[in-house]
User: Fold NNP family nitrate/nitrite transporter-like MFS transporter from Neobacillus ginsengisoli.
Amino acid sequence: MNLQKFQLPLQTLSLVVGFMVWVIISALMPNIKKDIPLTPNQIALVTAVPVILGSVMRILLGYWTNRFGARIIFFISFIIIIFPVFYISAANSLTDLIVGGLVLGMGGAVFSIGVTSLPKYYPKERHGFVNGIYGAGNIGTAITSFTAPMLANSIGWHNTVRLFLIPVILFALLNFLIGDRKEPRVNKPLLEQIKSVYRNEKLWFLSLFYFITFGSFVAFTVYLPNFLVTNFKLTPVDAGLRTAGFITIATLLRPIGGWLGDKFNPFIILLFVFGGLTFSGVLLSFSPTITLYSIGSLTVAFCAGIGNGTIFKLVPYYFSKQAGIVNGIVSAMGGLGGFFPPLVLSTVFNITGHYAIGFMSLAMFALASFVIVVWMYYLEKLSLETKIMENVGQSMMVTNSKGIIEKVNRAFTIVTGYQAEEAVGKNPNILQSGKHDQSFYQKMWDAVQKQGYWQGEIWNKRKNGEIYLEWLTISEVKNDAEEVKYYLGLFSDMTEQKS
Assistant:
């Protein structure tokens, strides 16, 4: 039996189960606090604690998945999750909720398993969509937010938590039995992989982006149920339905975000994402009614879903050889992005009596990310132009308007013998052979100034003193004001052709 074709549905459903148990505490908090007295700050801490391990462990699970494969890592993770689920089902104190919630974070940590494993089975042009499909496993949080409060009203929250043991045990067995034993492995030391990427600014930019998009998704997931009950006096079931709607929208849009990242420039998509998050942060800062608050929250859901899918298109694009560790770091930062907002919002409310400053922080971070995306977009275009220049077959030399060399390519070095650092900053006369008089060069530059270009045969000299014949084209490069800013020289060695 070919097990590879089962990996996408198996791992996606495994993520659904992981996320279902990850948010048990936050989904049931309106019911739990009736039995265990908790202050608002304690509620914020308890609902945020599962995010800690769920974030930090993503780094290790991403690395271990590359080394041992998704099958064994999913299996071990679900075996570990059994214990906190059972422990929380018998909780009767704040300490029990914190201890159980901390280990419950493994449910969120499994995210980095699939984003590391699944791209191995698909070509690069489909990575965005595949990771988007897998990321739709976020729907597990909606399932819990929707069903858990209703079950708790019927059978109590303790028994509701115990029911979650069934899917956890089931998918531990399914991964063990039909997980791919032959998944390609990458066995490089952890520290070696970290050293190879930690100085790359793109890693930290992507981490910041995911910190905001996935962080806002997680934060609203754990924060909405209790907030809607406390501030808008909704019933726990109504709050759960609204939270489930938020999660569903963000989840269903994630594959679309991945698909858009495959089809279009991902940076353009992210500009809309962070522009929308900036708007929603400002709106939520000044939204006294449930209607305006709903509009702001739905905008967050839309932008977070699209952004989450698009960002994980960029990870294998930039880090194909270190995907495991980079997926772990980026997804860990996203998880931490869900840990801090509930605590910040609670603290801000206790100090000021409202949430405006906390939501304005979302707008500020989103706006900063918008600016960084603009910078990365133009940097990417510049990088592409540089790569084109470096790999073009003809020798290339760029001088400024004063005739000083500013850039050369690899072919220039092959023909002339001058390394880039030896040529840049010098005048092109370092190549003059002495075979042409001054009038030759004067006519050449007169033609450039009158026609915008000159081309013809010219004798030049290599670094080793050898004289060679080349076919040279010199062209003007002007700016929008029609001012000459650069001269571009393209040439090829004609010595062998002549001989």
About this structure: The domain at 3-388 is CATH 1.20.1250.20 (Growth Hormone; Chain: A;).
